[in-house]
Amino acid sequence: MAALEYWVWLSCCEISARAKAALLSRFGDPETAFFAPDGALAGLEGISRQEGETLERRDLSAVRVVVTACEQQELRILTMQDAAYPRRLTHIFAPPAVLYVRGELPPVDSSVAIAVVGTRKATVYGRKMARDLSYQMASSGAVIVSGLTAGIDGEAAWGALQAGGKVIGVLGTAHEAERGQLAESVAARGALISEYPPGSRQLRSNFRDRNRITAGLSLGVLAVEAPEKSGTRLFVEEAANQGKEIFAVPGNADAESSAGTLAMLKEGAMLATCGWDVLREFDALYPGALRRSERLHAPEEAPPKPEPVEQAIEPKLDKPKHEDYIDLKKQLSELSEDQLRIIAAMDAGPVHVDDIVERSQLPVAKVLGQLTMLELKGYVGRLPGRRFERKITKK
Q1: Strand, helix or coil at 189?
Q2: Which of 137, 163, 161 is nearest to 278 (CA)?
Q3: Sheet holding 380-383, edge to edge
Q4: What is the CATH number of domain 328-390?
């Protein structure tokens, strides 16, 4: 068996990133660990008893499935031993043993990469600032790193793409769970990366784990808009612990949506009102990588928006019944209870997956799995920023 397949084996093991890092620290590579004597894996510091039992099973059954899926999804498998693996990630806590990459990963270690983060519930002001500042930075030669979620992160990615720049999208899911328009555009102009192999379960901890990678790829973090209590604050804390430079965009003093970024400024974050406020801090460190652009505003036209969805699942009664329309009542009767709960949790317009989870009261992994099935059946459509829309389907 090729050495690469042992890396995939470690990636497929459902253990924490910390446990994987402990294993590699002790044995150097997954192949050596795989052939270690019985009992040697379970007794390591940093590996729980349950994680040790998982490793000791030495189960290779998923490896070929994952490798085949990577070929089908056009994913490149990068291990820590590959030359293309970003060295910046080797300096963070528990570096990902494997990265699954779609698209072309920019030369991270020689690039000025900036993570742009903020609230999903962004205001018009926040969206504009995220888009414009990312547009300015990308026009000046920076690489934008984004989680691609709705709100600030997604707008930042769009702004960079509109400038013709490079974007790295860091996923908290396996690749097949993120196939919206924004993800496809990023893969075409930059790269989508995930530490999770195809077919892996979605866990709530994945998104917190993603923070360490997004911050690790970046030299600095720009927080555009965030309330006082938000995931953005947790992200910035992770980045600060990694020694990254922190920047924040000011907002109205009495705006709840800016309370978090204003607090960051009070705590020592550098003020940023334009993209060059961020990039000037790295210009001398990376000579030739940046060139200040005079392009200040992303194009007024927004990225292509999905067509409006129907306002109700049932067709209007005043329309003649046509054979092209499915008997919706019959179709809905064929859905499982969980699928019906998910459909019921969706509004007429786009809905973020987090809101579907909250309304349906179903586990994240189950929601993502059932949404995939509903998408295949034509009941829902996938949109940028991990949003979904309810659809009226046809035969």
Answers
A1: helix
A2: 137
A3: 351-352, 387-390, 380-383
A4: 1.10.10.10
Tokens of 10: 């470690």
- The CATH label, of 3.40.50.450, 3.30.870.10, 3.40.190.10, 3.40.50.300, for the domain at 87-279 is 3.40.50.450
- 118 φ, ψ (degrees, to nearest 5): 170, -175
Token duo for residue 357: 């989870």
Q: What is the CATH number of domain 3-72?
A: 1.10.150
Instruction: Per-residue pLDDT tens, the chain, 395 aa: give them.
Output: 478 999 999 999 999 999 999 999 999 999 999 999 988 887 788 899 999 999 999 999 999 999 999 999 999 999 999 999 999 999 999 999 999 999 999 999 999 999 999 999 999 999 999 999 999 999 999 999 999 998 999 999 999 999 999 999 999 999 988 878 899 999 999 999 999 999 988 777 777 889 999 999 999 999 999 999 889 999 999 999 999 999 999 999 999 999 999 999 999 999 999 999 999 999 999 999 999 988 778 775 544 443 333 333 333 333 334 433 345 555 566 688 888 888 888 877 788 888 888 888 888 767 776 776 677 567 888 776 677 888 754 43
Nearest-CA neighbor of 309 among 256, 348, 264?
Answer: 348
Measured distance CA(189)–CA(223) in Å, rounded: 23
CA angle 2/7/10 to nearest 5° reads 135
Domain definitions of the chain by residue range: 3-72, 87-279, 328-390
**DSSP classification of residue 278:** H
Q: Which residues 6+ apart lie within 8 Å of 285 measured at CB?
A: none
Q: Taking the model in full, what pTM does it have?
A: 0.75
Strands in the chain per DSSP E: 76-79, 98-103, 113-117, 143-146, 167-170, 191-194, 220-223, 245-248, 270-271, 351-352, 380-383, 387-390
Residue 66 has a CB neighbour count (10 Å cut-off) of 23
